[in-house]
Design brief:
By secondary structure, this protein is an alpha+beta fold. 17% of the residues lie in helices and 27% in strands. The protein is built from 4 helices and 9 strands, in the order H-E-H-H-H-E-E-E-E-E-E-E-E. It comes from Streptomyces argyrophylli.
Length: 241
Amino acid sequence: MPVPRPVRTALSVAAVALFAATATACGDTGGLRGAGPTPTAVSPARLWPDLRPASSPAYPYDVATRATVRGVTVPGDDIRRVDPVDVVEAELKAHPDDYGSKGAFHGTVDRMKECRPGGERSRCPLLKPYYRDLTGDGRADLTLGFRLYPTNQTAVRVYTVERHHLVQVLADNDAIIGVELAGRALIERSPADISGYEYRTTWLWDPGQRAMVFSRDEYLHVGDGRHARTPSPSPSPAQSP
């Protein structure tokens, strides 16, 4: 049974007092004491130095996505004045193979109609938009998420404004259990195939490619089989880390 906070404080004070009294009684002068022998440092061992280098990547990974959004204007170059519904609908129109009647995400199209005034908001696949400077130009960028029906996947998108145009700089689809913004990094959390573990994928802005690029993929233990819950990031103005 957890100890209440006041009791914990009292026990801590009592423990410190007891330790001080014991140290005084034993004549401890407070000097430094040795911690024993230190293990010898061992340098990394390079295995198979004559191994022939691979001629191609182990598997293809779309590390960067960049595309100008057609049909969506940015009033005053202020991304906050762009309607997120318009942004998603522009993607649906631009990719009929994915969102058409025979596409893998065809159920998203009908549900997007519920995002308009008068629609049933509980059926709208668009998630709450967030604004934060992820590109480092001092202006807010737009992070969007929307469900990809009838699958269990979620689309994660990041947009910025360049030369008066809305530009998509990140596009990723996955079975998402959480998304976090940390400084200028976007971190996706996805379920792993082993209970108690999850994948965490980090995306960072690359000035050379002018896009959010795949930076790190981790396989982490998160507990006893239940996915840890992480609070959603709150909307924030453009900021530097």
